[in-house]
Amino acid sequence: MSRSAIKAINWAAIAERVPEEQKQLFIAFKAKSDQYLRRMMANPESSPQLNWDYYRKNVTIPGLVEKFRKEYEALTVPYPADKYTSLIDSEEKQMLVDIEEYRKKSEREIEDINTAISSLKAIMPYAEMTMEEFVEYHPECNCGTVNNPSIWPHTPEMKEAEEAALKPPGEDDHDH
What we know:
The protein has helices spanning 3-7, 11-17, 23-41, 52-58, 64-74, 85-122, 131-137, 156-166.
């Protein structure tokens, strides 16, 4: 991570989004990050410049200073390749797509709910309805009528048991 990137972290914005049960983990993570930043800032951004003239005057072994100078200038410490930023960016793009899909789905659900609310507001109040009017508005709640009675809990299993109990003895479901 570069020096400018680690300084640009908006810790307050992140802290607002951290759930209460994870605050301690967040504080520990921020402390480690701050410690890393302090250690990084204690070191210079580039390698120190050496006074080669001083060493040429004071080192008596011929060619040693030039050999060290060549090796020092040829030395490069590669900065680790950034292989995670592209992954994070692609994950962010996918997350934005997912968020947009969820938003559209939620808007459709809100429209459906508002339609249902409008239809409920349009019907007469339940306190003023007869049972027949209620069944007309809500046929899925029809527990039975005078011609088609059923017993509580009005499940298909209970309906089958009720029909079996009403059959005359000796009548089977099989054909002989």
